[in-house]
Write a structure and sequence with these properties.
The complex is a heterodimer. Chain A is α+β, with helices and mostly antiparallel strands. Chain A contains 15 helices and 16 strands. Chain A has 3 domains: 289 residues, no CATH class; 115 residues, no CATH class; 61 residues, Arc Repressor Mutant, subunit A (Orthogonal Bundle). In chain A, the strands form 4 sheets. Chain A has a 9-stranded mixed β-sheet with strand order 2-6-7-10-1-11-12-13-14. In chain A, strands 5-4-15 form a 3-stranded antiparallel β-sheet, with no helix packed on it. Among the domains of chain B are: 252 residues, Amidase signature (AS) domain (Amidase signature (AS) enzymes); 75 residues, no CATH class. The relative contact order of chain B is 0.13. The chains are: A alpha+beta, B alpha/beta.
């Protein structure tokens, strides 16, 4: 395969469900997991005579995102109707934006293999979600489709990225960064499994160095980072093969089949809907004032990039640590909290990057569900620093105990007697006993065999069940041994 | 004498002073309906028992609203909770509305009694009620003729004393034209004055709810009650609602009136034209300054309307798919087949025609040539009005090109569409327009005069209409 001569050109279209309390055009709750069809009213059920009223909170969230990706926010935008028939689309049209979206021309900088690259974002639309068709799982599913309208009217941001991505890795990085931003802004929970973050891609192939775009396909059903990567990889190879074989790529929509690991045709361009967009007459144009924008600006949290830079500067931690710690806003908060209390940012970072993240990964939970509070982790770090316990004990005994029992580190040390022995007299006594029990090593040491020192330290540690302060043991042991000379 | 011959305002004061009981009023009205509606067919649903029950409750009430005990009829495209709301369509034939339209809430707050739901052209598409899926309403002045439409049932009910007043909806003339054909006062308010929440949408950017009444005063009373901002309708206006009844009694100050240049009246009924000039003369005697004006953009108004209205309708009517409510054709294998059969059987020919027109006008490749062009034309029409209102306070036109026509006379849809030639422009511009009966044809059919005003100038419209009403003495005492 001559794949090194080709490159894919990829554009992503992201749908993010907004975390508003109520739906986009009515007062119904957006609570996920409520009983079917319990969150409906005349508006989101598409009854005759019902009219939409815009949710201001959703506009605020859209503006937040637009500000963070440096998009141009339009003071005048227009809602439009996208017309098509589907049983879970109650009005027979979706209220979205078309000719005049809320924001355009944003950008996001990604970094893959240490190479930075800016990916443009063409537009952000504010729109409503449809209901849900339930084809499976009911006892008469073989003959009936059930409909749940709880999701109907839930606000979505549609983010249309420019075709400026050139590898599956870049695409995954782009989507990951986007998800982090949405979560940072607390406007979307980013849950791809539950569908609150969805992604479609379009992909075409061209010879490297050529600027013209090839015929693209659109790929749907990419509901995880892994599937996104696999599907793009598959589609890239498929299209390259077509071109190599002298065949043409068909402009069509393809569906990712995760079971078979392939994309397959869903509908061709000829079968594509004509959505007959026109301005939504039930809603006046959306006017966003400069004042509104500056109000929203004031509520913006630090962006991941800003936070990263600040952590490096303020806490003097490595770039790599800062990158990992800022992967989620909550994780960064947890770090800062811990670091501030224990006054030892490097140790705080080490603990979080290793023990904490490892635990989160194994338990498959987020930092919000982590059983140890930042204060308590900070206390543990302080105990080590004050030499009231050893790093080894902390990792092997105390930390696991904290995870299990929720007890404070100092309490565990007290109850289990895990305190470090730093009492010189106590240590001296043990050393004397060890030397008495091991006359041969003493002789060897006095003959000049320095290496037995390690053996003796080990014996002292063994005797104290690892609780003795090893530096102190070494220092004291050396001076005692030397006194025999 | 039957209590049904009183105007709404008269009934209000009789009821307010408790000289009569609501129960007596409702009983008389039900008797009238019983006698006349077999011939006129104004009502799709008569709410006899409900109305009587409500009347009894109102008779017991101490604190009562302005319309306490007054029987009103509602066009059957206004949602009434727990009551069938059909839009005169098979597709909604058995649809029981689960909520009240805002206007219905407002009427009920004033203790009005809804006595029935009236016939109309299916989904308000038509000018004669002949497009009703159920039956054609007859003009009370001549049963061989149409009452106009689409609010024909609402007009016929009031004109034949089967309701004290009624509400209709007006997208291109659907209140004013039947008001003219039945000898009533009908108002299409400024777009946004009356909430559309709970009005089954035909063309959202044009639809307005308004009253059909026997007198200007009745119209003023009802408009004040149904008007005003509604948080449930994003296109509703915050403009304060004055006391129209009080305002209308005040002396006419400025009386600068535009009338149509003669070429604009070409082809209209001679009797209508004569009555128009006669009324203008009367106004001159009343001290009006008359300005002859040409509105060249009106030549395109109907064409513009028949792009915008069907476009919006094609989308508004997409929700009638048989999935959640309304008629469903159950003998289908796939949902696509169910959609097609449901809509094929559920909609009548005129509705289908307009859905097709609108779907075509919005489709890619045609959108710019049709919809966008129509939207531009619409702005031009509005602009022309604004220029006129820099010079005059009112524009007067005949409401309709002819009086009530014979049932079945207009089989060609285009001929039917022409009924709206003087009325559509006000909808396109969003400005208020009122039709007032000013005289009779030789055959004894009512003739209407249309008064068009600037945005939110309803007070002025009532004032002039009230002054003309006093001079022409249209109403015959029954």
């Amino acid at each position: 395969m001559m794949s090194q001569f080709y490159e894919p050109v990829i554009g992503l279209e992201i749908h993010a469900q907004l975390l508003t309390k109520t739906k986009l055009f009515c007062g119904c709750s957006t609570q996920y997991g409520s009983p079917q069809n319990s969150l409906v009213c005349p508006v989101c059920f598409g009854l005759p005579g019902a009219l939409p009223v815009l949710n201001e909170e959703a506009v605020r969230m859209a503006v937040k995102l637009a500000l963070v990706i440096n998009a141009k926010i339009h003071t005048h935008s227009v809602f439009a109707r996208k017309n098509y028939f589907y049983p879970d689309l109650p009005k027979g049209y979706q209220i979205t934006q078309f000719h005049f979206p809320i924001a355009t021309e944003g950008a996001l900088e990604i970094e893959v293999n240490d190479i930075k690259k800016t990916i443009g974002i063409e537009r952000i639309n504010l729109e409503e979600d449809a209901g849900k068709s339930i084809h499976e799982g009911m006892e008469d599913s073989s003959e009936k489709t059930y409909l749940d309208f709880n999701r109907s009217g839930v606000p979505l941001l549609e983010i249309v990225g420019k075709p400026e991505i050139n590898s599956p890795d870049e695409a995954v990085e782009f989507l990951q960064l986007f998800r982090t931003i949405l979560q940072y802004l607390e406007i979307c929970d980013g849950n791809m499994e539950e569908g609150s973050l969805r992604c479609d891609a379009n992909l075409s192939i061209r010879k490297k160095g050529v600027t013209e775009l090839g015929v693209k396909t659109e790929i749907k059903n990419l509901n995880s980072f892994r599937f996104l990567h696999k599907a793009l990889e598959f589609e890239t190879q498929r299209q390259i093969k077509l071109l190599e074989d002298g065949k043409a790529v068909r402009h069509e929509t393809r569906l990712w089949d995760s079971r078979r690991g392939e994309t397959r045709p869903m509908r061709s361009k000829e079968e594509a809907h004509d959505y007959r967009y026109f301005p939504e007459p039930d809603l006046p144009p959306l006017i966003i004032t400069e004042e509104f924008i500056s109000q929203v600006k004031e509520t913006l949290p630090e962006s991941p990039q800003e936070k990263r830079a600040r952590l490096i500067e303020e806490y003097q931690i490595p770039v790599y640590d800062a990158k990992v710690l800022t992967s989620s806003r909550r994780l960064a908060d947890f770090f800062e909290h811990t670091a501030r209390i224990c006054q030892n940012p490097k140790q705080a970072s080490n603990w979080i990057m290793r023990e904490v993240l490892q635990y989160l990964k194994e338990a498959n939970i987020s930092i919000d569900q982590f059983p140890i509070q930042a204060e308590d982790l900070a206390e543990l770090i302080l105990l080590i620093e004050k030499k009231e316990t050893s790093l080894r004990l902390a990792k092997e005994e105390i930390f696991p105990e904290m995870l299990q029992t929720n007890k404070k580190a100092s309490d565990i040390v007290k109850i289990k007697g895990l305190g470090q022995i730093s009492d010189e007299q106590k240590i001296k006594a043990i050393i004397h006993q060890v030397i008495e029990n091991n006359p041969t090593p003493l002789k060897q040491y006095l003959e000049g065999k320095q290496q037995v020192l390690g053996f003796l330290v080990g014996q002292v540690m063994k005797e104290t069940k690892g609780k003795a302060n090893p530096q102190l043991v070494k220092k004291t042991l050396t001076s005692i041994l030397n006194s025999y000379k | 004498m039957s209590l049904t011959s009183f105007t709404l305002s008269e009934l209000c004061s009789l009821l307010e002073t408790r000289k009569i009981k609501a129960e007596e009023v409702v009983t008389d009205y039900l008797k009238e309906i019983e006698e006349k509606d077999k011939k006129i067919s104004a009502y799709i649903t008569v709410l006899g028992d409900l109305a009587l029950e409500k009347a009894k409750i109102i008779d017991q009430k101490k604190e009562r609203g302005i319309l306490a005990g007054v029987p009103l009829a509602l066009k059957d495209n206004l949602l009434t909770k727990g009551v069938r709301t059909t839009c005169a369509s098979r597709i909604l034939q058995n649809f029981i509305a689960p909520y009240n339209a805002t206007v219905v809430e407002k009427l009920e707050k004033e203790d009005a009694i809804i006595i029935g739901k009236t016939n109309m052209d299916e989904f308000a598409m038509g000018s004669s009620t002949e497009n009703s899926a159920f039956f054609t309403t007859k003009n009370p002045w001549d049963l061989k003729r149409v009452p106009g439409g689409s609010s024909g049932g609402s007009a016929a009910a009031v004109a034949s004393n089967m309701a004290a007043a009624s509400l209709g909806s007006d997208t291109g003339g659907s209140i004013r034209q039947p008001a003219a054909l039945c000898g009533l006062v009908g108002l299409k308010p400024t777009y946004g004055l009356v909430s559309r929440y709970g009005l089954v949408a035909f063309a959202s950017s044009l639809d307005q709810i308004g009253p059909l009444t026997r007198t200007v005063e009745d119209c003023a009373v009802l408009t004040k009650i149904i008007g005003g901002f509604d948080a449930k309708d994003s296109t509703s206006s915050c403009e304060p609602i004055p006391d129209y009844q009080k305002e209308m009694m005040k002396k006419l100050q400025s009386l600068k009136i535009a009338f149509l240049q003669e070429n604009m009246l070409e082809g209209i009924d001679e009797g209508v034209k004569e009555m128009y000039y006669h009324t203008l003369k009367l106004l001159e005697q009343m001290g009006a300054e008359l300005y002859e004006m040409d509105f060249p953009s009106w030549d395109y108004a109907l064409a513009c309307y028949y792009i915008i209205a069907p476009s919006e309708a094609s989308s508004n009517l997409a929700r009638y798919d048989g999935v959640r409510y309304g008629y469903r054709q159950t003998n289908s294998q796939t949902f696509k087949e169910m959609y097609v059969k449901t809509r094929t059987e559920g909609f009548g020919p005129e509705v289908k025609r307009r859905i097709l027109l609108g779907t075509f006008a919005l489709s890619s490749g045609y959108y710019d040539a049709y919809y966008v062009k129509a939207a531009k034309t619409r702005r031009l029409i509005t602009q022309e009005f604004m220029e006129a209102f820099n010079k005059v306070d009112y524009i007067l036109t005949p409401t309709t090109p002819e009086p009530a026509f014979l049932i079945g006379a207009k089989e060609d849809p285009i001929a039917m569409y022409l009924s709206d030639k003087f009325t559509v422009s006000a909808n396109l511009a969003g400005i208020p327009a009122l039709s007032l009966p000013v005289g009779w044809t030789e055959e004894g059919l009512p003739i209407g005069l249309q008064i068009i005003g600037n945005f939110f100038q309803e007070s002025r419209l009532f004032k002039l209409a009230f002054a003309i009403e006093k001079k022409v003495k249209f109403r015959k005492q029954n």
